[in-house]
Design goal:
alpha+beta, N-terminal domain of MutM-like DNA repair proteins, Helicase, Ruva Protein, domain 3, five-stranded antiparallel beta sheet, four-stranded antiparallel beta sheet, 7 helices, globular, DNA-binding
DNA sequence: GTGTCATGCGTAT
DNA sequence: TACGCCTGACACG
């Protein structure tokens, strides 16, 4: 269940184990057998993330492109390796480490040009720290009349934000999700970019999304907050706002739910 | 066991 | 706007 922080964390943790290693690749499920054969025995040079996409660059210049979609999951293990699930699309191993992938939306081999095309289609990624990120993000928002709550889910505008971060970021800045994207002030755009960078980084480090900060949690550290205490808005409809105690509300934008506080966000 | 739901996205209508 | 795609966890009987 991946937003951008999950993919960057995967690139970092998997990279520690596999970058520079000759890997065995198979597809127990069989749906990626030809691709697995092509990669089997090659040296994996580096794993890279942009937005919600992962790119595994191999010595031959083959690039394994993975997008987890809604269901995809990675599992890393050390020997003795567990039995792969029947749905295991890709199993990548060295003698010391094994990566198990099930349920990806996309799993394909690209050449470097096609890889660049995929990356170019994505908006700036807050976790890649582009120097002009805020300006680029602002430019992409400025021409759009769609609600900001829809715009920040559009991976061509900013890459890596998903449904949890959408509700959380807008709550934290007091922005109504239905505000037209092009009506956001320069200050709000900058604050939104900066907060997105901070929150995605925190999620990458922690391995989970925790936005509630000590001020709103009696000083408890983020890492220690129990499930149900970690978020401000996401899936909290009917519960009381952690800041003003009015009820959190929920609406559908493009078939995905958004949660917000009518009193704090406008 | 069956049904439902989910942190996503592309394509068709 | 609807549907298809991919999997697994959990609620319910």
């Amino acid at each position: 269940m991946p937003e951008g922080h999950v993919l960057h964390r995967a690139a970092r943790l998997q990279g520690k184990r596999f970058n520079g290693c000759e890997v065995a690749v198979e597809s127990p499920q069989g749906r990626f057998s030809a691709g697995a054969d092509q990669l089997d025995g090659q040296t994996l040079e580096v794993i890279e993330a942009k937005g919600k996409h992962l790119f595994y660059r191999f010595e031959s210049s083959d690039v394994l492109h993975i997008h987890l979609g809604l269901f995809g999951k990675f599992r890393l293990s050390r020997p003795p390796f567990p039995e792969p699930s029947p749905a295991c699309r890709v199993l990548m191993s060295t003698s010391d480490d094994q990566l198990h992938l099930a349920g990806p939306n996309q799993c394909e081999i690209l050449d470097p040009e096609a890889t660049a095309d995929v990356m170019d289609r994505l908006g700036p990624d807050p976790l890649r720290g582009p120097a002009d990120g805020a300006e680029d993000f602002g430019r992409r928002l400025s021409t759009r009349k769609i609600p900001i709550g829809r715009a920040i889910m559009d991976q061509k505008i900013v890459s890596g934000i998903g449904n949890v971060y959408r509700s959380e970021l807008l709550f934290m800045l007091g922005i109504d999700p239905f505000t037209p994207a092009n009506k956001l002030g320069v200050d709000d755009v900058e604050r939104l970019w900066a907060l997105t960078v901070d929150e995605l980084k925190a999620g990458e480090r922690l391995g989970r999304i925790v936005t509630v900060t000590p001020d709103d949690s009696d000083g408890a550290k983020r890492r220690e907050l129990a499930a149900g205490e970690r978020l401000y808005a996401y899936k909290r409809d009917g519960k009381s706002c952690r800041r003003c105690h009015e009820p959190i509300v929920c609406a559908d934008i493009d078939g995905r739910n958004v949660w917000w506080c009518r009193s704090c966000q406008h």
